[in-house]
């Protein structure tokens, strides 16, 4: 070969003992390109032109690191929360690839770690992007996502890619205020005594009236066997005045209950699952005033079969408050002087994970506060 120069060409030549020569030129191009090459040879005369008629393909392929299946040959259907364990495979032994770089579209994380006792939860986002392999989990769904892996080979940058259709279930997550704020002894979740509470009343005939009722309905799930469950985080602040200068204040924040507080089994397009919450605080005989304010984020979560992580689908943001004092004309009774129950965001799409470092079960108590 007389000339194979150019920014994308790498030449190799071998001279045999009889004086003859053998040579090759490696031309790098993006998958799908049809580069033109003009070899100049003594036998054919100067400037004889040839055109490459086959596409440059499969120099780099993206494969499933677990099964070794080539993912570049077709669109691949996967599920949010499913572990993506990909390998950038070099289909030549003549060179060593360097400078790997992965490009992953959409919202992806490295892991979601929940403590076994539900005391903390953390999202890890730093999945590897400069190694020969990568591992991540998609949180959001979309069609025709193109994952690319590029590397340097013989001084040129080459790129392989794979297409993914990422499925995510569709479901409505609706909150409705059913109960009301009260200060009385009609609180089914604790007895005896009086309580400042939101819902939890035992009706004269019928079920317990929940403060807020959550319903998962209108599900469209093309993700196969999977789990839907309820997770709630929040914060609360209560005060119990013993005198004008001595209020016992309690506060808490974090996970409310456990991570999988309620699991919804058998969700179908024609079915619905519900869950209710009715928080409250006990009233002491020595109290001259009691107040409580709560706020919560209630998540509907989804998880496909392992290896996988849970994925948030929808969120409801809500809260309640109440202030009560003793009834002067009826000893042992309480009068509600202010109250509120509100849903601030309902059926809200979300890809943000609930994270926490504490449990609402662990109260921080302070005394000798000014009664407000």
Relevant terms:
372 residues, mainly beta, Immunoglobulin-like, 3 domains, seven-stranded antiparallel sheet, four-stranded antiparallel sheet, 0% helix, 54% strand, disordered N terminus
Give a brief outline of the structure.
With 372 residues, this protein is mainly β. The chain has strands at residues 9-15, 21-27, 36-37, 50-51, 60-64, 75-79, 83-90, 98-103, 108-109, 111-114, 121-124, 133-138, 142-153, 156-167, 170-177, 181-184, 195-198, 201-202, 208-209, 212-220, 227-243, 246-255, 262-264, 273-277, 280-282, 289-303, 311-326, 334-349, 364-369. It has no helices and 29 strands.
Descriptive report:
The chain is mainly β and 372 residues long. It has three domains: 9-51, no CATH class; 60-167, Immunoglobulins (Immunoglobulin-like, Sandwich); 170-369, no CATH class. It is 0% helix and 54% strand. It has no helices and 29 strands. The chain has strands at 9-15, 21-27, 36-37, 50-51, 60-64, 75-79, 83-90, 98-103, 108-109, 111-114, 121-124, 133-138, 142-153, 156-167, 170-177, 181-184, 195-198, 201-202, 208-209, 212-220, 227-243, 246-255, 262-264, 273-277, 280-282, 289-303, 311-326, 334-349, 364-369. The strands form nine sheets. Strands 21, 22, 23, 26, 27, 28 and 29 form a seven-stranded antiparallel beta sheet that branches. A hairpin with a 7-residue loop joins strand 26 (289-303) and strand 27. The chain is elongated, with a radius of gyration of 32 Å. Residues 1-7 and 38-56 have low confidence and may be disordered.
């Amino acid at each position: 070969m007389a000339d194979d120069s150019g920014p994308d060409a790498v030449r190799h030549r071998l001279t045999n003992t009889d004086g003859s020569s053998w040579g090759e030129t490696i031309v790098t191009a993006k998958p799908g390109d049809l580069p033109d090459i003009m070899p100049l040879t003594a036998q054919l005369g100067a400037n004889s032109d040839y055109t490459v008629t086959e596409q440059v393909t499969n120099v780099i392929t993206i494969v499933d690191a677990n099964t070794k299946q080539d993912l570049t040959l077709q669109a691949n259907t996967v599920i949010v929360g499913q572990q993506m364990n990909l390998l950038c495979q070099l289909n030549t032994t003549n060179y060593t690839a360097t400078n790997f770089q992965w490009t992953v579209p959409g919202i992806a994380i490295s892991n979601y770690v929940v403590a076994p006792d539900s005391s903390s939860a953390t999202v890890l986002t730093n999945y590897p992007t400069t190694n020969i392999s990568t591992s991540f989990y998609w949180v959001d769904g979309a069609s025709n996502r193109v994952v690319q892996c590029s590397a340097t080979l013989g001084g040129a940058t080459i790129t392989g890619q794979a297409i993914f259709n990422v499925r995510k279930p569709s479901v409505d997550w609706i909150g409705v205020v059913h109960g009301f704020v009260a200060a009385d002894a009609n609180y089914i979740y604790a007895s005896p005594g009086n309580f400042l509470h939101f819902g939890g009343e035992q009706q004269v005939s019928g079920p317990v009236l929940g403060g807020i009722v959550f319903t998962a309905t209108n599900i469209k799930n093309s993700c196969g066997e999977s789990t839907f469950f309820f997770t709630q985080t929040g914060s609360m602040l209560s005060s119990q005045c013993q005198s004008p200068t001595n209020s016992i204040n309690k506060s808490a924040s974090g996970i409310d209950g456990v991570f999988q507080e309620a699991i919804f089994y058998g969700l179908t397009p024609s079915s619905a699952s519900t869950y209710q919450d009715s928080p409250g605080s006990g009233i002491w005989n020595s109290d001259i005033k009691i107040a409580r304010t709560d706020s919560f984020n209630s998540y509907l979560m989804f998880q496909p079969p392992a290896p996988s992580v849970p994925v948030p689908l929808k969120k409801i943001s809500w809260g309640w408050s109440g202030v009560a004092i003793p009834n002067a004309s009826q000893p042992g009774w309480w009068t509600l002087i202010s109250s509120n129950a509100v849903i601030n965001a309902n059926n809200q799409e979300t890809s943000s994970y609930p994270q926490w470092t504490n449990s609402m079960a662990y109260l921080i108590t302070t005394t000798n506060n000014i009664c407000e």
